[in-house]
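Entry 12.
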Amino acid sequence: MTAAGDLHTPLAIVGIGCRLPGGADSPDSLWRLLCSETDATSVVPETRWNAARYHDPNPSKVGKIVTRRGGFLSEVDQFDPQFFGISPREAHSLDPQQRLLLQATWEALEDGGIPADGLAGTDVGVFIGGFTLDYQLLQNQGKSSRYRFKSHSATGMMMTMLANRISHAFDFRGPSMTIDTACSGSLVAVHLAAQSIWNGECDLALAGGVNLMLGPNTAIAESRSGFLSPEGRSKAFDDAADGYARGEGGAIVVIKPLQRALDDGDEIYAQILGTAVSQDGH
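Predicted 3D structure (tokens):
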């Protein structure tokens, strides 16, 4: 384990698992999407909500969304629960965000050439950025919603389980936490993962984030607050910027000390030399 207090030991990212809009389901396909300058946004799929029904360009309209667009995955309902030791009954109550993270974790470890079974029972840390819980909102809708809860509903829809589902499924014993700092959650997760390794709490960490847009309620709230671009596209640092575009997906990176990665013969994507977190107050 890295000695506590040795805060300047370089870290290495040795594995990546991702499911992102535009068909980016691997580090290579994500890189190709970026290099080709592909627009990965689209009109809201009918499987989520009716874009025409909920759209209105007037942000003051009650129950409406100023945009029809966002960054969506093609499938969020495909999952093999028994592969992860989850029964079909429990899987029915499982937030698709948890499912997506399990898949991305397996693929990140596979990408790094790390057998998941070999990590069971060890101090692997898990740090996940999360922000919205659309699956929970869908289950809580309607007067009869309280009668629909089952034995696995609580663990299936709670924010804490975004990280702890991974730790439980893979039998990881290190720190495990979900971080909600809104849009910065995944980067703060990387910060905390690095700090955990530097503090000697774990010698390998998984960091990442997830977001799925399963229903219109969150978009309606953000639209009323003036967050969303009517065009459904983010234009950062541009005079034409008029809000941001919502997107979804999940991604995990595998982090370990650089020297250990070199000793293990890992392929290294990047190094982490230092991290920091701040807030801008007013």
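Annotation: Confidence is low (pLDDT under 50) at residues 1-6. The first strand starts at residue 11 and ends at 19.
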